[in-house]
Amino acid sequence: MIRQENCKIVSNRPIADNIFELVLEGELSAEMAQSGQFVHVKVADGFDPLLRRPISIASINDGSFTIIYRRQGKGTSLLADKSIGISVDVLGPLGNGFPADEAKPGQTAVLVGGGVGVPPMYELAKQLARKGVNVISIIGFQSSNAVFYEKELAEFGEVYVATVDGSYGRKGFVTDILDGLEGQADIVFACGPTPMLRAIENGAYAPKTYLSLEERMGCGIGACFACVCHTKDDPQGFSYKKVCSDGPVFQAGEVVI
Ligand code: FES
């Protein structure tokens, strides 16, 4: 059930260059089940900035939940300035997340996260490892100062890191690492920038692939149509899906990305 709640800030700290981890306390956490869902956070009191910010859920805990955001622009700067103990207005959980049940015990799931697409992979890795799925995580960033959650993901399986400038891990893109895994994946789950998702879709690295199109979000609640994308079977026509309410997670081949 979707609810709106004033959630108390338990912690709000930088974990990489302009990347913040925010832990919120609230009954909302009991409504959360799927990784890849998101919450809509009101970053300021009053109407400035007017819009809420859609932020994906990184971890669902008992009585609290964790979200991770990039500080860029006025809204998220206001959020970064908020201190422990105060409350923020949160709406959620929203959207359809990753179908963890599609990965069976004993199978290998490869989780791919790029930049702020990494956070939902943490909750997914946790859920998959708990039911006996072999988890391999591949995370990609621009450079070493942007890297986060490598250690956290390592709790659940092997982790590979790629940086574009080569300052940490392997130089290049997450797909360079995926290329090297040669048929190991039974299923791929990915979240990150659109070019990364396109490359993963085209690479067909596993029999099943699920992609989260987070970058295409606007209002987050089905009202603005900023997030619509065409379905693959009708790429020029009137058949479309809303990323915020039909997604953000889609099976590869379902929509035009
Ligand atoms: Fe506004 Fe989806 S983001 S309708």
Helix-strand blueprint:
Layout: E1 3-16, E2 19-25, E3 38-41, E4 53-60, E5 64-70, H1 74-80, E6 87-94, E7 108-114, H2 119-130, E8 134-141, H3 150-153, E9 157-163, E10 170-171, H4 174-180, E11 187-191, H5 194-203, E12 208-212, E13 228-230, E14 240-242, E15 249-251
Parallel strand pairs: 7-8, 7-11, 8-9, 9-10, 11-12
Antiparallel strand pairs: 1-2, 1-6, 2-5, 3-4, 3-6, 4-5, 12-15, 13-14
The structure holds FE2/S2 (inorganic) cluster.
Question: How would you describe this protein?
Answer:
With 257 residues, the chain is an alpha/beta fold. It folds into 2 domains: 3-94, Beta Barrel (Elongation Factor Tu (Ef-tu), domain 3), CATH 2.40.30; 100-214, Rossmann fold (3-Layer(aba) Sandwich). The chain contains 5 helices and 15 strands. The site of FE2/S2 (inorganic) cluster has 13 residues, from loops.
